[in-house]
């Protein structure tokens, strides 16, 4: 078919990347039969990316198509394609492929679609072709729209996309199934390839922006630019009522009751309410005892020193889900886990809960009648709150920004062409984060996205500005709950519908999950001691004639097992939910998993997990051997979150630059991939441990001393 074309219409280039097979003989045979082939043979293996870039640069034609050696044109379609290319000017021409096992002629799909669809918006084009934007053989690139661009500078990075694109929906390419790219070509565009995580929603008007293009490109290659979880927050006791109730259950001196009241000052009215309805009635006439400011400050520090270990385990689950989304070779896992970015949602609910609890513990009982009086009486706790936030978040965050800049400088000096190898871009991103506008600057294309996971830190920074005002100005719990409910309603029914940009990255569209955490913190002291949560109360009831099965189910071992299974199921649901919504198994379109309704589902599961963790009754992964590991990871989750993205970017750059030196065992086998993944995880943990010991922990301890000195000076 190529021989029948006029001269100068079609050029065939074979770029032989120093192969050891019979490629030279095959090319010579084709040339002897009259096929016009320009043969280029590399003296050394330059890697797949550089070889592809070489083909693109060497091509003389206006349109360039990079074809794999197992991809074929359907008979009669080459002339059809060339005729169409000569009629109009396009940026990208996507050809519809189908998969075959042995004979493409016999396996040609029935039906088909002869339509030709043209798109002027990149977002609509990506929504139409789906994962085929990552299938190199299916995309023909107009070289004239980027004449001054050297394709080699994009080696090891992402795709380059242009405006005005076309999708030829007639089946044109026959492609071998389960090829090196992992494409199966079963069914519709929505279901292939399995490893494709997500792409731009057609409902987003910003889909054609430079920032959207960069983000979409980043999400379809291993060098993924993550959306990652939010900053971690200090811990506070999840058992603040227990010392008070222990003191009330026994004849204790007044000093003991005073100490118990100091431990849970914000729950005094709750204790009085319970005193009228339980077995404590005769001993629980609550007396409000004023506390000295210095006692209040030291009590706050003591309360914050306690860790809710189940919250720590949830932190570990959240950061592991995030790593699972971003890490190289995630194809080792089930495809449903490729989109398990819901660790961010869990982190937001945890943050809202823990931060609100820590602030509520330090607020005076009597805030005052007017807003001015409330602010005046809460001045010291609010200042201490912001000091804790600064010493908790800022040191590690800016340390990693500096580390990013140093790595970028080294990569640039060593000749890297990766996007990270631009120190000026890192500097711009650091300034945007320091100014508190990182996520908005990222969404609207004002800065690059090398540190895109910092968007969640910006969201929490904005929330921290509002949380003290909400809890202080709304003096009563009922008012605070009403304010949170109004805030959630504004996010769900006003902010998200009116936001044209990505609702996942902006503060005003993600505050609802943080507010859910605030609601849990406000209600935890009310629901924690309800009998429904006390499984042993139900198990201890007398039932005549109970069977052995019933007695077994009421046993402590069975209760612990059932509670652990509930926690495991909720964690699994949180991990799998976005992956399920990202397929057409439920009749979806592949876009629903990133919608407002989907985020509400992720938040609901996260809220259930945090509620169970707040009880501290063994619901969250209370498994011998596993629990200490998760608690260790949870304690260093902030450092892990900040550092793992840097390692991913460096890893991908080194992997592509030194690809030819990597043994085939590591590159081509699942065992090799697993070894690389394990090595990557060890490096992540090592970097996090070093950061935790050198930066995070010393700065946090220093912050505690500063806060204690401040409170004593004010007293």
From TrEMBL:
InterPro entries: Acyl_transf_3_dom (IPR002656), Acyltransferase_3 (IPR050879), Glyco_trans_2-like (IPR001173), Nucleotide-diphossugar_trans (IPR029044)
Glycosyltransferase 2-like domain boundaries: 6-111
Keywords: Membrane, Transmembrane, Transmembrane helix
UniProt GO cellular component terms: membrane
Membrane-spanning parts: 390-411, 431-451, 463-494, 560-581, 593-615, 636-654, 674-695
Annotated Acyltransferase domain residues: 309-688
GO terms under biological process: polysaccharide biosynthetic process
Entry-linked Gene3D superfamilies: Spore Coat Polysaccharide Biosynthesis Protein SpsA, Chain A (3.90.550.10)
Gene Ontology MF, one: acyltransferase activity, transferring groups other than amino-acyl groups
PANTHER family with a match to the protein in the record: ACETYLTRANSFERASE (PTHR23028), ACYL_TRANSF_3 DOMAIN-CONTAINING PROTEIN (PTHR23028:SF53)
Protein name per its UniProtKB record: Acyltransferase
Protein's organism: Ricinus communis (Castor bean)
């Amino acid at each position: 078919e190529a021989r029948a074309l006029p001269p100068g219409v079609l050029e065939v280039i074979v770029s032989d990347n120093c192969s050891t097979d019979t490629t030279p003989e095959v090319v010579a045979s084709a040339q002897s039969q009259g096929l016009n082939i320009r043969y280029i043979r590399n003296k050394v293996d330059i890697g797949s990316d550089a070889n592809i870039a070489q083909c693109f640069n060497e091509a003389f034609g206006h349109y360039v198509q990079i074809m794999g050696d197992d991809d074929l044109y359907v008979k009669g379609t080459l002339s059809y394609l060339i005729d169409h290319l000569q009629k109009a000017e396009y940026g990208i021409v996507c050809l519809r492929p189908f998969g075959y096992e042995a004979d493409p002629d016999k396996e040609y799909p029935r039906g088909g679609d002869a339509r030709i669809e043209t798109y002027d918006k990149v977002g609509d084009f990506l929504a139409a072709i789906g994962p085929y934007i990552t299938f190199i053989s299916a995309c023909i690139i107009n070289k004239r729209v980027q004449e001054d661009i050297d394709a080699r500078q994009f080696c090891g990075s992402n795709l380059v996309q242009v405006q005005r694109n076309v999708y030829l929906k007639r089946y044109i390419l026959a492609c071998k199934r389960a090829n090196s790219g992992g494409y199966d070509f079963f069914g519709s565009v929505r279901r292939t390839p399995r490893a494709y995580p997500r792409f731009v929603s057609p409902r987003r008007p910003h889909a054609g922006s430079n920032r959207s293009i960069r983000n979409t490109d980043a999400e379809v290659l291993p060098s993924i630019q993550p959306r990652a979880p939010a900053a971690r927050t200090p811990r506070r006791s999840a058992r603040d009522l227990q010392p008070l109730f222990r003191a009330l259950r026994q004849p204790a001196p007044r000093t003991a009751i005073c100490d118990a009241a100091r431990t849970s000052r914000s729950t005094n009215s709750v204790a009085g309410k319970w005193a009228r309805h339980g077995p404590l009635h005769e001993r629980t006439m609550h007396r409000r005892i004023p506390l000295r400011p210095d006692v209040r400050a030291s009590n706050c520090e003591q309360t914050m020193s306690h860790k809710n270990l189940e919250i720590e385990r949830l932190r570990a689950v959240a950061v592991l889900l995030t790593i699972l989304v971003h890490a190289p070779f995630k194809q080792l896992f089930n495809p449903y886990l490729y989109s398990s970015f819901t660790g961010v949602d869990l982190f937001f609910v945890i943050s809202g809960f823990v931060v609100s609890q820590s602030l509520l513990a330090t607020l005076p009982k009597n805030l005052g009648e007017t807003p001015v009086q409330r602010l005046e009486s809460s001045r010291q706790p609010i200042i201490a709150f912001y000091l804790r936030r600064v010493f908790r978040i800022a040191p590690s965050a800016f340390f990693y920004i500096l580390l990013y800049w140093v790595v970028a400088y080294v990569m640039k000096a060593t000749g890297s062409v990766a996007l990270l190898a631009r120190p000026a871009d890192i500097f711009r991103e650091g300034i945007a984060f320091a100014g508190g506008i990182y996520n908005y600057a990222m969404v609207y294309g004002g800065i690059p996205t090398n540190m895109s996971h910092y968007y969640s830190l910006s969201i929490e920074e904005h929330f921290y500005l509002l949380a003290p005002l909400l809890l202080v100005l709304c003096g009563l719990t009922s008012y605070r709950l009403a304010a949170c409910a109004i805030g959630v309603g504004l996010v769900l029914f006003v902010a998200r519908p009116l936001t044209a940009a990505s609702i996942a990255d902006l503060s005003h569209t993600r505050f609802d999950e943080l507010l859910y955490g605030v609601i849990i913190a406000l209600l935890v002291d009310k629901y924690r001691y309800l009998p429904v949560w006390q499984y042993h109360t139900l198990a201890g009831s007398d039932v005549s004639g109970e069977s052995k099965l019933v007695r077994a189910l009421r046993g402590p071992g069975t209760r612990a097992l059932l509670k652990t299974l509930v926690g495991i199921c909720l964690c699994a649901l949180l991990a799998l939910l976005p992956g399920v919504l990202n397929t057409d198994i439920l009749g979806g379109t592949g876009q629903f998993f990133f919608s407002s309704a989907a985020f509400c589902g992720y938040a609901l599961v996260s809220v259930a997990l945090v509620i169970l963790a707040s009880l501290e009754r063994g619901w969250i992964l209370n498994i011998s051997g596993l629990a200490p590991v998760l608690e260790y990871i949870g304690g260093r989750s902030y450092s892990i979150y900040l550092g793992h993205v840097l390692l991913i970017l460096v890893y991908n750059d080194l992997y592509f630059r030194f690809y030819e030196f990597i043994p085939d065992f590591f590159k081509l086998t699942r065992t090799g991939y697993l070894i690389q993944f394990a090595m990557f995880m060890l490096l992540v943990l090592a970097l996090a441990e070093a950061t935790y010991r050198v930066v995070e922990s010393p700065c946090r301890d220093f912050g505690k001393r500063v806060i204690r000195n401040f409170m004593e000076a004010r007293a």
